[in-house]
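Sharing a chain and its predicted structure for anyone who wants a worked example. Both blocks are below, sequence first, tokens second.
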Amino acid sequence: MKLIQNFILLTAIGAAGLCLAAPRPDDDSDVQDLGPKLATSRLVRVADLASDPLTLLPLPLGNDPIDRGSVEVRTKRMVVVQMEGVPSSQDFDVQFCRFSSAPDRCQSIGAVHSDANGQVREVLQFPGSGNTWAGQFAVRRNNATQYVSGFTLASPAPASGAEVSVKGRVKLVDQQAGTFSLDGFQPVILVDSETKFKGRLSLSDLKAGMDVEVEGVTRPDGSVLASDVKAKVQGKEKD
């Protein structure tokens, strides 16, 4: 069974047709009638994006924390912004950036303020009634883009005891903990007295950059207990 590393994809959203089908009646009972939800997207940190983020984002990029956040577009031209775990007692500028190379592609919708607990829930008005919009939301603070509309895809954790077979390059070795890790493979690999190394090798022989093949099983904490380890040294397989 092969484990897939978590990764992040940046969404390409349209405020007139984001990720939902036709608008439906609201389930929540808002005090203010904002209309049915037309589009919804998570907010993700720009600091967590892969390299070379979309150039439509206004620069520079920041690294503010966030636990969770979302942007909802309602049919009555209202935008609901919710955030938790952001810097407390701060002002944020919410912008919508059209898919365009024009200098004015990013338009400010309004400002929101986080409370003493780092939470935000405010309603802003979206401009341009009757227009079709395609682009991305950006939340800025201190003249830097901190969060953008997007989503995170994560592979589910495998059940304990699932068989694992993986090939990769050694990234780090922790002799004291009896573990090592591979580039592009999230789980830590544990070595114990039952682990069989091919050839005259041991954990102390593993170095960063070596190519290895590992057979093992998953553990309840998400790590992999190696049963067999085969390494290649200077292009030659040690077996």
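Comments welcome. Residues 214 and 229 are 5 Å apart (CA to CA).
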